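Support case: user asked for a sample of complex input and structure output to validate their parser. Sending the pair below.
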Amino acid sequence: MAGTPAAGSRWRFLGRRALQALPTILVIVTVNFFLLRLAPGDPASVMAGEAGAATPEYMAQLRAQFGLDRPLALQYLTYVRNVLTLDLGYSFRYQESNLSLILGRMSATLLLMGASVLISVGLGTLLGLVAALRRNRIEAALILLATVLAYASPIFWLGLMFIVVFAIQLGWVPTSGMTTAGGPGGGIAYALDVLHHLVLPAVTLSLFYMALYTRLMRASVLENLRMNYVVTARAKGVPPRRLVLRHVLRNAVLPIVTMAGVQIGGALGGSVVVESVFGWPGLGQLAFEALFSRDLNLLMGILTLSSVVVILANLLVDLVHSIIDPRVALA
Amino acid sequence: MLRRQLLGSLPLLGIGAGGLAYPVASRAQGSRGNTLVVVTTPEPTVLTNAINSAPSVAEVATKIYDGLLEYDMQMQPQPSLAEAWETSGDGKSVTFRLRRGVTWHDGRPFTSADVAFSLLEVVKKFHPRGPGNLGPLEAVDTPDEHTAILRLAHPYPPMMKGLSSLESPIVAKHLYEGTDIRNNAANNRPVGTGPFKFAEWNRGASIVLEKNANYWRPGRPYLDRLIFRFINDPATRAAALESGEVDVAFFGTITPAEMRRLAGLPSIEIAQGGYEALAPMMLLELNTKKKPLDDKRVRQALAYAIDRKFIADNIWYGFGKPAVGPISSVYSGSGLYTDQVLRFDVPDRVARANALLDEAGYKRGSGGIRFELTQDVGPYGDDYRRMGEYMRQAYNRIGVRLNLRTVDQATYVRRVYTDYDFDMTSGWYVGMGDPTLGVQRQYVTSNIRQGIPFNNVAQYSDPENDRLWAQAAVETDPGKRTELFHAIQRKLVEDSPIIWIMEMDLVALQNKRVKNLITTGLGVRGGLYETRLEG
């Protein structure tokens, strides 16, 4: 594709988008820094609180160690300079480099996120298509009923119910975690073990968006079926199967792709709950713990890196969009 | 609110599955071998309890490190790294004969130099309770590699209760000497002399410890591996225990209501005991500098108004017993406890409370209300909120309107301990092996330290009380020491700067195939070298 005029404009379009991302990240870093400083309490008091005992020397040691005794403006400037050099600093709490803490958890979150996006987009598109084509039949009614249930149930409740049914009563899958404690350390056995643990959290996390996609897809397919190009295609004798797969599907799927960008952006928030319920060692849990322990350095590191991931994911969505619908890149 | 109702439906579903529960449990354990899996919360921040006394840090680190001593269920000292010990006639020096042939997990020999360095340079300086446990310790003489003589500024009997792996773990001098102790890499890759060696830490998921094949107790530990798992959600932790993925759940990981349900399952039981070394006490701290709580009669009335037995049985599902004063009955073994104090559990307690408030001049106003108070609910879980809701009703009966305030831990610590912006606050404290070590901090004038959590936040100050505590700390005659502590209890209950609610039973839940989980007063905060798995 590269080299053709259409592809050239596509890369220019993506490059422009990428440039716009830089100031966005700077704004995010600044807002995060000052917003988080508004929270009452500091990590030293939380650590002393957890210890159940403290002396003035202990508190002063902790504050000096964390650099909390320096002026706020200085802390901010240091932080921005560090972020620009990709240095996310040290975690107050874990006494480890934030970057290594975050990267250690990032893969777990990306795995969960990727699996749930695949499940929800795949199944959502399929079910939406079926619901549209089988309009006024029992299949469509059942699909719509299922989407209402999936859409309306609180995600943590669904997760717990899945644990009760599939892990405790049926024993098909483990209740929680990403690997079996003391289980296989590598190879195929390890991959299968992770997959076994991934099923429940990924399905739980995907249900909400799957319901959304199903409804979106159904509406979009129904709308497209009424379009002039469909009438034209029918008139020139395109077989129904080819009409749906080649013409309608490609047009109808556009809103889903847009929505998938939103899902990826929101996945971190949703995964806090799911990671918590399923003991999944991902970024969401790390962020949650960092917030409650006022480990602000770590929290800012997570937010900054997550915003980079979200921006990258949106670039990817733009790319996919421009492939499916070349008009987007030219606009 | 919604969440609690929804979780409430879990037990019902569990009952339906009762017939299936047992086979499920054994299915999950099949391939694990001789490995004990424990769930605790929160995930530790470091793995060396010499510099951090948070409960979950100690739960892991006490398997890796040893102390000089251990304690039996009556809190009497037992040999550990020290084989024998002797206190001098004047009480100012204690000689420890150290075990020979002990090695660190890295193969280096353990010597008296490690003891001297650990106590003076690490525990006394960095452990939050170090200054209390080792207060008058001035020097440690090491005449040879297997003798350590602790030199004290004055006699200090409580020290002999603070030398366990929980309070004074012995760390390796060759790894810590000349380093920045708080940022030493060994804090997260611990090297000890204990029954288990550190293997790996999968952040956010688990910590794996492996059997120390060279452990100095022959044939111990029984377990090949010990794995700590971290799961954020209490309902999932309960599910993991029920499904058999987890063998032991420490207290605080599962709500009391769920604990009762799980303990009724055929595969799970309560592991009794194991909190004697902590002497945990649930209580309500009052701001004695603030009106109307500056009046002793008001504080007594508030103490009379609540039914401790009701709280223990209904809020905490029987995991505890009503308290009568500042010193827990687990100290009965050493005779320090007495129940011969002003008793608030009398039949006419509500009438007495009303009479005291009338006498103090707080008449009932419009709506029968005398005054309003705010309770800052301790940030340790929903059950503290429920306890607050009970108290609101109980205080209504004596014309006191109670408002509840719930915030996260960081905000709470700031508000209560730094800003003193509170009337009363619920929480729990550990008394440790001796009242001087853990109880004293809440009552003596010298411990009114604004900004430092878990001190005398009630700001209670009384010269007579201060004098009694000072004497008790240095008194070497057991009979006289007992007298002093009985006097302290009578005095404090009379003044009621704090309302003592319940002596907590910090029990663990275990799968029935786990044997010998609790063998010392340290309980699950001990080495677990006697713990076995059956079947």
